[in-house]
Amino acid sequence: MLNFSYQNPVKVIFGSGVTAQLAREVPAGSRVLVTYGGGSVVSNGTLAEVRAALTACHVVEFGGIEPNPHIETLLRAVEVVRAEAIDFLLAVGGGSVMDGTKYIAAAACHDGDVMEITRTRGRCIRRALPLGVVVTLAATGSETNNGGVVTHAATHTKSAFFSPLLFPRFAVMDPARTLTLPVRQVSNGVVDAFVHVIEQYLTYPVNGKIQDRFAEGILLTLIEDGPKALSQPDDVEVRGNLMWAASQALNGLIGAGVPQDWATHMLGHELTALHGLDHAQTLAVVLPAMLEARRDAKRAKLLQYAERVWGLMPVDDEGADGEEQRISTAIARTRAFFESLQVPTRLSAYGIGANAIDALVAQLEAHRMTALGERQDVDLALSRRVYEACL
Ligand code: NZQ
Ligand code: ZN
Predict the structure, then answer these.
(1) Distance CA 1, CA 208 (A)
(2) 266, 382 in Cβ contact below 8 A?
(3) Ligand 1 in contact with 265 (CB < 6 A)?
(4) Which residues have a beta carbon within 5 Å of ligand 2, which is an ion?
(5) pLDDT tens-digit readout, 193-213
(6) Is 180 in the pocket of ligand 1 (CB under 6 A)?
(7) Which option is the CATH number for 183-389: 1.10.580.10, 1.20.1090.10, 3.90.1150.10, 3.40.980.10?
(8) Mean per-residue pLDDT, 91-105
(9) Nearest CA, atom 48, ligand 1
(10) 71-87 burial code (b ≥16 CB/10 A, e <16)
(11) Cα 229 to ligand 2 centroid, rounded to whole Å
């Protein structure tokens, strides 16, 4: 029997034209800091719609939150929060803006050294400003979870932090907002959501039937509609299913009570921190190599994945060789899926060679990422082999 507690207090406001509903969600009279990224929300009209919905509030804006948001940038926003006596944060953007805003929410209320927030993975957070989000990129699931990932640029350290105080109050999710995304970001979103499911599903069996079937449903949806977002770029129905899939992939539901891996993410974070790859690009590279390296430990779930997600059914008397073959095919299909979305799955495609590996492993060690995975058996030697297999 699984043991878990599950809580997700985020109010989801999903569908076409829902941005105007912000007016009801942000308390009238609030002093709101609207946060955004490099300007896509300015050029595609999202910010103007947000401003129009917030006429009952005092609005201050903070733009320039970069992808893989830097703590250094976010602390400038904290100064604005203090100077303007801000009491509500509204993130308008993708995962980086949402995560960055969660960090601002915690840092603005933090006494003492803010670096504690990442050092303790958020455990030190006692208070946070309330926040809401307007999603413009479906990928991370940040809109319906209580985590964030920020980068300390000075030390090339990418760290996650979590707190029940950092669930957004609401998530405004209009799939049409994602129609202006460049192909690379659409594909990134599909890959990120896919790997989020895999990190929680492809471990070892614990009879979590609902978690498993729901995870498989999300994967099948991404496999079905991910490519359509590229071939039918104006199809808002497709974007809607992808947006909801990405949110469900990391809102806590499929992970409730089941073992979780996350080693692919941790190896990926070092690739972003040292070489600047997009988050999803790192996952597309690392995941196939990671599954291959751990195929024995993950055997039962890999066979389930082969059968239920890729339709690779067992044949009579296939024996151990047949099973190994199906696992190999499932991993190959996974890689081919990422490649079909135009996300390269080899480090060489990003100009990274074998001479990069020592530094990546050293960073894992410096960040204490030495016992990863659902059984904490991914040590530095195994991580090195995975990086080598990514070349
Ligand atoms: O900055 P702007 O100009 O807005 O452009 C952004 C950015 O360049 C652009 N974009 C976003 N919405 C757009 C748009 N362009 C045109 N039209 C739109 N509607 O997309 C680019 C990438 O944005 P970003 O927010 O960085 O992407 P994503 O949503 O993939 O977020 C990635 C970040 O989330 C973290 C990652 O590590 C990374 O830092 N993650 C957060 C998680 C979480 N909170 O639960 C879990 C994930 O595993 C992940 O680690
Ligand atoms: Zn991710």
Answers:
(1) 8
(2) no
(3) yes
(4) 192
(5) 999 999 999 999 999 999 999
(6) yes
(7) 1.20.1090.10
(8) 98
(9) 140
(10) bebbeebbebbeeeebb
(11) 19
